[in-house]
What we know:
The chain is elongated. By secondary structure, it is mainly α. The longest helix is centred in the first third of the chain and has 23 residues, at 2-24. 52% of the residues lie in helices and 0% in strands. This is Cadherin N-terminal domain-containing protein. Keywords: Glycoprotein.
Amino acid sequence: MKNKKIIFNCKYSFVLCMATVSLLNGQTRYSIPEELKQGSVVGNLARDLGLIVSDLGKRK
Length: 60
């Protein structure tokens, strides 16, 4: 009985972990027109991720 409970807990923990990982995984995509001049700014990744640029240097 104890082994079945341990196996159930392991399976439940694994499923919960995989569900959490899939929720946290994400991508940021930008659409770039072909006619855009070389050197043009496409997007502000720091702003899109909600980062404060002045604080990035303070992080370790």
